[in-house]
Amino acid sequence: MTRSSLPIAVALAASAGLLLTACGGGGSDSSDKIQPSATVTTAAPTATSASPTQAAGPNAPKFDLPSDAKAEFSGFDTSDVEKKDVLRDVKNAILTIQEAEAVGKGNTPNIKRYFAPVQAATLSDMAIAYRKSGYTITGTVKDYRPTVKFDASDRAQVTYCEDQSHAYDKLISTGEVQKSTPSVKDYSLWRMGLAKNAAGDWQVTDYSQQKGVSKCAGS
User: Fold this and answer.
1) What is the pLDDT along the chain (219 residues), one digit of tens a residue?
2) How far apart are CA 136 and CA 108, in angstroms?
3) Considering the entire predicted model, what is its pTM?
4) Can you give the chain as a three-state secondary structure string?
5) N or C: which end of the chain has fewer CB within 10 A?
6) What number does CATH give the domain 8-27+34-216?
7) Strand 47-48 versus strand 69-74 pairing type
């Protein structure tokens, strides 16, 4: 079951002026309409679970994640110098969102580092609201098949697939995990826009999810 308590993706996309419309249910590929998501998840080299977790490399961030919330990445390592830093920071941005959901705090150092101001404020508010609703995250999210393109302004557009079939909401009060039968709805195509800041980090400026994308099934 895709985590469904916190519409961070919706908030981030809305703050960037994107329009989200619901797609139909069932097992069809409802293809490729944009739909609100409930969650956004994760990032580090291959699998991430420690608390705190530190990504590799100089000036690498640390992420405060519970041991039962993990991220796995495939295809994010590249020898292409131009794309390498972008994909590194996409992973860090995904982990930042997962950390925000896990700890329920806003304005963390990672939020400020990897999200442009409007998106950082929105993510902070939604992370706090998620915690107040009584939920945290558990399970494993898999992100794979990234593509990177640059526009004339040297901004980056990244797409990637995500499998949330083993990622869930968890009630903090009881530890109850909100599970359901896995389906095509657990597979999403994400689009992330990024711009490099003065410090050299690629920051998220817009973010959207397309749910029920059958071509993303399987890593």
Assistant:
1) 456 544 455 455 444 433 222 232 333 333 333 233 333 333 333 333 344 566 666 789 999 999 999 999 999 999 998 899 999 999 999 999 999 999 999 999 999 999 999 999 999 999 999 999 999 999 999 999 999 999 999 999 999 999 999 999 999 999 999 998 889 999 999 999 999 999 999 999 998 999 999 999 865
2) 17
3) 0.78
4) CCCCCCCHHHHHHHHCCCCCCCCCCCCCCCCCCCCCCCCCCCCCCCEECCCCEECCCCCCCEECCCCCEEEEEECCCCCCHHHHHHHHHHHHHHHHHHHHHHHCCCCCHHHHHHECHHHHHHHHHHHHHHHHCCEEEEEEEEEEEEEEEECCCCCEEEEEEEEEEEEEEEECCCCCEECCCCCHHHEEEEEEEEEECCCCCEEEEEEEEEECCHHHCCC
5) C
6) 3.10.450.50
7) antiparallel
